[in-house]
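Follow-up to my post from last week.
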Amino acid sequence: MASFNLTVLPGDGIGPEVTNEGIKVLKAVGEKFGHNFNLKYDLIGGIAIDETGEALTKDCLKLCKKSDAVLLGAVGGPKWDDPQASVRPEDGLLALRKGMGLFANLRPVKVFPMLVDSTNLKPDVIMGVDLIFVRELTGGLYFGRPKKRWRTSRGRRAVDSMVYSEQEIERIVRVGFELARTRRKHLISVDKANVLESSRLWRQVAIEVSEDYPDVELEHMLVDACSMRLIQNPTYLDVLVTENTFGDILTDEASMLAGSMGMLPSASLAGVPQDGVKIPGMYEPIHGSAPRRAGLDMANPCALILSAAMMLRYSLGLPEEAKSIEQAVDRVLEEGYRTYDIVAEGQKKVGTRQMGDLIAARV
Ligand code: IPM
Ligand code: MN
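User reply:
Got it. Predicted complex:
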């Protein structure tokens, strides 16, 4: 019987509710395939600030680094939103990314055919969308130095720095190429090379790395053009790799193709995914903590459940088990069950817990 150590960080708002459903589904996977998941719970985000004064304690980071993978719900809420506050829930997330070395953020966006009418875009534009963003997660504007605010005789000034080393670019671009190899063999590297020096280095390194991947076609796209292409012709896109801030913005835009953020998982990895290699990683839904929905048994647990599937695939080396979860989600949607965010006429509206039960039963 294979045994895996997982750290579970439910976090704030709807985080704990959707996490419960993810654990329920993992237990079903464990029973079906004979695996044992050892769970250790800890705090992150607002609840961690309330109980420890820090958004992520050193002990929690240590626990995360020791485990095979980390499953996270969501962080943040109005209670901790004071702009003057010295510590914010989001700091916990950034510290976890940096502390675990999670440089590669995978954000797949797949349009479920049965949900094609629950988006704002025309069905014929989004039908068949199946793309994946590879966002650099530990560099660029988020972490570059100098990063500060100061006073001058002519008023206040502030600076953030978009800094990249060639090593940082190389490893993230490799993630893009490796994924492209397993898909349509088309990698789009997104930059702003017509203006930014860091983007010119990015583009050059991408071209150099492409020599190791003659089977993959590399295309460069400017970030402004990419934001347009995402809603104009999204089925053209397959694997996209980009720096931290561009990736943050483009993936929110891309999430709207799928109708609800409640359906979109993500993985943050500390290595390049390759067949048969287990990579330390953290897995979380794309959506936030949705404080107004918290405690109402309303939230859509699918994004978290699909994040758990990504965890099985990339960190635990269990691709069959991952598929069993993804197929279970497909089946439940095909049978017409919907949480409030994706419900339409004639369908069966269910709450968070019932959605989790239905999926677990179909694993
Ligand atoms: C995301 C979020 C985070 C980010 C915030 C919460 C720090 O928007 O994961 O995309 O900007 O990376
Ligand atoms: Mn974001």
